[in-house]
Amino acid sequence: xxxxxxxxxxxxxxxxxxxxxxxxxxxxxxxxxxxxxxxxxxxxxxxxxxxxxxxxxxxxxxxxxxxxxxxxxxxxxxxxxxxxxxxxxxxxxxxxxxxxxxxxxxxxxxxxxxxxxxxxxxxxxxxxxxxxxxxxxxxxxxxxxxxxxxxxxxxxxxxxxxxxxxxxxxxxxxxxxxxxxxxxxxxxxxxxxxxxxxxxxxxxxxxxxxxxxxxxxxxxxxxxxxxxxxxxxxxxxxxxxxxxxxxxxxxxxxxxxxxxxxxxxxxxxxxxxxxxxxxxxxxxxxxxxxxxxxxxxxxxxxxxxxxxxxxxxxxxxxxxxxxxxxxxxxxxxxxxxxxxxxxxxxxxxxxxxxxxxxx
Length: 359
Known about the structure:
Layout: E1 4-5, E2 10-14, E3 21-27, H1 37-47, E4 64-66, E5 70-71, E6 74-75, E7 80-85, H2 107-114, H3 130-148, E8 151-159, E9 162-163, H4 174-177, H5 187-202, E10 209-216, H6 230-239, E11 244-249, H7 260-263, E12 267-270, E13 273-276, E14 284-285, E15 288-289, E16 294-300, E17 310-313, E18 319-322, H8 333-356
Helix pairs in contact: 1-3, 1-8, 3-8, 6-8
């Protein structure tokens, strides 16, 4: 089950980065949902490579095909098969993998675990595997939006030491996010981030960053004590993504510097329900959604494949100079934005369907 996520809304992804194709099986989608490829394609378009000079030049249209589970535009309640064909594979770029485990890649660990590994690209550890997640997440997001009015927006909040300023998580929109190549909705910050990525690219290097995400209109009551808390499910979803190195919700690590008198979120009447004046908790209390926006951040490391020569050793332990080939992003975070949104949707829809069992 290592390639599956969820309980009532269960998603299994398949495919390797340089194989015939990648995709997902979605089991547990309710029947009667209007669904077509047009509902899924926009998020795949935001994820796909070759969008700008800040991303990998690999040319992939990433067009999705619904193989099963939908008839006459409506879901049947049966498993939904989703497939995206790989078109621009270049397995010859990875000949060095035969003898040399690439630094900070999964070549060594996959070989150790299975005694074999994909002969080109990263196989299942490649970011291309996330296509299936994004396609499935688009379905989850459609249900969340139409049934509960949930709105999920992610954006780039930092690249390297360049941090975004002046972003109101209550108001930021996907249109604002997509207005810049870096997917940072603050224009001035975006310019600095994009200049930094180009500088790194010219040096044949890479750099990491942080993606922030807000989930609005999440009803109170979602999340399962004790081990399946909302933030625990979000953390699992986010840290299952390639290149992730950290997750924090609400005040996160910065909150440890505050005293309780400042960190506590006092209650107040908000229309017909109770709410909080502040939201240091990030939208959860005791692992259950409070009705406030769910706000979290995900850290992504620098891309492991760089164009600079690296001193390492082969599988035989002998020193070697590795000059990586292939086409890779100098920074993953602009393309990670729709992936984070999709994983948030998958975590939320599963908890939403569990909560319906109590109602």
